[in-house]
Amino acid sequence: MKEETNNFGYLSNLSKDIPSGLVVFFVALPLCLGISLASGAPLLSGVITGIVGGVVVAWLSGSQLAVSGPAAGLTVIVLNGIETLGSFELFLLAVLIAGILQLGLGFMKAGVIGLYFPSSVIKGMLAAIGLILILKQIPHFVGADEDFFGEMMFFQPDGRNTFSEIGYAFSKIQLGALIVGIVSLAVILLWDNPKVKSNKYLKLIPGALLAVVLAIILNVVFNNYVPALAIADSHLVNLPVLESFSDIKSEVAFMDLSGLTNPSLYIVAFTIAIVASLETLLSIEAIDKLDPHKRRSDTNRELKAQGVGNIVASLLGGLPMTAVIVRGSTNVAAGAQTRVSSFVHGVFLALSVFLLANLMNLIPLSALAAVLLVVGFKLTKPALYKTQFKLGLDQFIPFVVTVLAILFTDLLIGICVGLAVGVFYILKANYKSPYFYHKEEHRDRDIIRIKLSEHVSFLNKASIILTLDHLPHDSHVIIDGENSAFIDYDVVEAIQEFKKTAHERNIQVELINIQDVAVLDMH
């Protein structure tokens, strides 16, 4: 597939991509730090991966709008991997091998797997992510969440779950954080107003950027004039301040090659490669659905890009990466047009580490929670549920099951559950249309003609067997495969088995253009 940039020149879209990249940066920075913290890895390792995801992977990616970085879905794998291998330095070697495996998957064209996820399941995933974002950001919005920013699991590290955390948060509201959150949310919603968007000057300023700046000013005012409202440091961005090369060296870990003979290393690497690749393919498929220009991403190229990204990240001391739906959907919501937005986010992440750490540490998390609340609502609008319902139960049920399964477990488990339900409805649909059935009544015996369709796959086997089992006794059955370009071996075998035993029901069988196959006989 050719890169679809003909009508989306990078330079002509800078006025949209740079502000979008800045918005994604604000959201990505605390996510990178939080995931590092939760993974038991050095704090900067997540930021390093975010930088690589923006500066390197953005240009190699098969997608114009996806944003790569450390993913909350890999947190448990990273935590267990470090524990299994005994050190983060050895774990980096596993990330390197995982990257090489992903490169291999890309060259083997394994990205085609992404095309097999039903639309109802992908839409369910987006709606579920939106719901989770809203539910998870409420505690940060009121300044009462003790878990890391970006945590997405139903059962949380603090022992509470998504819903009980909200109840707990409302009993521990920090008024200053709540005021900042409300002001930030109001600014973002105001900036989303068509009147503001139509103003040629105001539309150049992202609402999220303005909200963050006002949030910093408000908290400075609180600190100096109303100390009771000052936001606690635990509810601000917490980036390490690097003032010298030795500071960088103490915050960054580098790979240990001594574990190459350890079998556990390859198990951890394989796990990272498979889970990261699946999460990437899911995210890419979802972002393509959100893309207002409906561009199709090259998923094989994306797997190669992720492979290179993980190799580079491992060499620099970073966590494993995926294309991340939260960052990608934030990117789309902010108005991004091309991959420049992801690149800009990576550049700002790098600047924040080396030049702007003190300024970044003034940002209240409640302001960033407001950004994600708006992104979450855009992903899970009531209109989406209404549209899916109108499409019929075969679309609505897999959609709702996916939403609930992700909400109460995690992304990959939820997708598997939704996929199983989606496949059931696909099988049910295939069951209905593998042939044309026509019955002619005659005095001596009925003539039944079963004309097979052009393509008869193993999915049609159940339908055909049930039809053959319920044919009336004493009939003449003609099974016609003349118009069939392909008949699956399993179906042919089932037809031949029927022919072999049809005489027991006094059924005369005539086959047209259906090959003979060996039928297992146990007698």
TrEMBL record:
Subcellular location: Membrane
Key word Oxidoreductase present: no
Cellular component terms per the entry's GO annotation: membrane
Main location: membrane
Record bears the keyword Transmembrane: yes
Keywords for the protein's UniProt record, in alphabetical order: Membrane, Transmembrane, Transmembrane helix
Taxonomic lineage: Bacteria, Pseudomonadati, Bacteroidota, Cytophagia, Cytophagales
Residue ranges occupied by any STAS domain in the UniProt entry: 437-523
The protein, known as: STAS domain-containing protein
Membrane-spanning segments: 20-44, 90-108, 115-135, 173-192, 204-222, 265-287, 308-326, 346-375, 396-427
Native species: Pontibacter actiniarum
Gene Ontology annotations of biological process type: transmembrane transport
Membrane topology: Multi-pass membrane protein
